[in-house]
Amino acid sequence: MTKPNDTKWPLQPISALVEIICGQHILADQYNEDGLGIPYLTGPSDFSNGTILVSKWVTSPKALCAEGDLLLTVKGSGVGKLARADKKYCISRQLMALRPLNIDSKYLFHAIRTVTEDLNRHASGTIPGINKDELDKWKIPCPSIPEQKKIAEILSCWDRAIEQVKKLIAAKKQVKEFLLGVLLSGKKRFKEFCIDLNKLIDNSIPEGWIFKPLGSIFKLTSGKTKPADFIVPGKRRGELVPVYGGNGINGFSNFSLVDSPKIIVGRVGEYCGCVYISDGPTWITDNALYTCEFDDSHDLKYFFYLLSYQNLSRLRSKGGQPLISQGPIHSLSLSVPPLNEQKKIANVLLVCDKEIEYLTDLTISYKREKQALMQQLLTGKIRVKVTS
Question: pLDDT (tens digit, 9 = 90+) per residue, 111-137?
Answer without folding.
Answer: 988 888 776 654 445 556 788 888 888
